[in-house]
Amino acid sequence: MDDALCVFEEFIEPDAVLWTTMITGYEQNGEPIHALKFFARMAMNRGVLIDPITLVSVVSACAKIFDLKLGKSVHGYIFRMGYENVVSLLNALLNLYGKTGSVNAASKVFEKMEEKDVISWGSIISCYAHNCFPEEALVLFEDMLARGIEPNAVVFISALQACEATCNVETGKKIHKLAVRKGLDLDILVSTALIDMYMSCSCPDEAIEVFDHMPKKDVVCFSAMLHGCVQNGRESQSIGVFRDMLARNFNPDNFDLVKVLTACSELGVLLQTSCMHGFAIKCGVVNNSFIGASLIESYAKCGTLDSATAIFRQIIDRDVVTWSSMLAAYGFHGKGKEALDLFNEMIESSSVKPNGVLFLSVLSACSHAGLLKEGIEIFNVMVKDYDICPNSKHYGIVVDLLGRIGELEKAMVFIGQMQEPVEANVWGALLGACKIHQNVGIGETAAKELQRLGYCQAGYYILLSNMYAVDEKVG
């Protein structure tokens, strides 16, 4: 673009084509702000007519920097110039409003369009799908098909993303069949969208079938498979996908490494964790906060707390994620006192402000170690000193903590003081404690509340029946 600018500046009176070429060049080469500045220069030159082609690049530049206010100004300018029926311009506006979350504005533009092409439909479907209106996106997709408009790859991707958001696997399968009939199922982007959709809908076998039939694969589809396998409890398979990814010379990103380490954690495979540790060192990302935290978690779950501690101490810039992972590691190994010491170290020696997740780790460590007094104190510190509103998980851990030491009456009082609706995990923790301490009365109360909430899991019935069985023998 610097060379292009030098050529442009040699013209004494550049025409509209030259101006547009520069604006489009900046917009397409990742310099949208320069494109808009150049347009401002063009607009001040009254001898040059600004045409729709120029404005398409200007609107696209606004979309790339998510500048809704400026985009609306350009929209007004389009109408003043009499270009309100130019399809390419209106499509660019739909894209702008979709990217900036202005669903109502996009909807009004779409409704007023006298002529709509496949790009128009794709833009409005994408707008709804990506702005929390997936059901409406699927309705629009059906409407588009009913009007006889042939969907392209972009439309299929947006429709599949809407299915993913709503976990609507039946509609997703219909769209898959349609994509096969149109010959677009083997498009790498459509295939990746299918993998994401099937994985999110808990259909990993269908996702694997799509992946296996792809004639060409890229790093994005490998990442989709990797993340989906972990998400669906296919940890061993995810490690296989990762190996295949490396064998094809694709470079995984940090999120991929975190997912593989999550798989190692779930499998408890120490050797694989050590290999991933070495790979992270080789890639120079071992000090990344999320990778470091994942290594700590994986080593801890593989039974080597010393290795987890060594990783933690080697990380120079520890953030709240790193501290939280180490605290969780101590809790996982029942090291409540060490977790409290580490929490105090963090408060005294770092500027890290604890969040709700970190307090969850500390409370869990106290619960596993049976540190009732300390756990209650940490809970009060969280609420009073850090003004963090406890959620159901925090309450559940405190109830679990009280239940472990047999303070079931206190647990009931604590539940009664909760300022938000009591969720199933809290009553489940209480029912589990009642089983341990054979308190049928409170156990029945917890079971009835679980039934009222619609959580009639077999495990809860087994706990209650076991209590009745023991109570009968005692009687």
Describe the structure concisely.
This protein has 475 residues and is mainly alpha-helical.
Description:
The structure is a single chain. The protein is mainly alpha-helical and 475 residues long. The protein has helices spanning 2-9, 16-28, 32-44, 52-64, 68-80, 87-99, 103-112, 118-129, 134-146, 153-166, 169-182, 188-200, 204-212, 219-231, 235-247, 254-267, 270-283, 289-301, 305-314, 320-332, 336-349, 356-369, 372-385, 392-404, 408-416, 424-437, 440-452, 458-474. Among the domains are: 1-115, no CATH class; 124-216, no CATH class; 233-317. Helix content is 75%, strand content 0%. The mean pLDDT is 90.
List keywords for this structure.
28 helices, mainly alpha, 475 residues
Topology:
Layout: H1 2-9, H2 16-28, H3 32-44, H4 52-64, H5 68-80, H6 87-99, H7 103-112, H8 118-129, H9 134-146, H10 153-166, H11 169-182, H12 188-200, H13 204-212, H14 219-231, H15 235-247, H16 254-267, H17 270-283, H18 289-301, H19 305-314, H20 320-332, H21 336-349, H22 356-369, H23 372-385, H24 392-404, H25 408-416, H26 424-437, H27 440-452, H28 458-474
Helix pairs in contact: 2-3, 2-4, 3-4, 4-5, 4-6, 5-6, 6-7, 6-8, 7-8, 8-9, 8-10, 9-10, 10-11, 10-12, 11-12, 12-13, 12-14, 13-14, 14-15, 14-16, 15-16, 16-17, 16-18, 17-18, 18-19, 18-20, 19-20, 20-21, 20-22, 21-22, 22-23, 22-24, 23-24, 24-25, 24-26, 25-26, 26-27, 26-28, 27-28
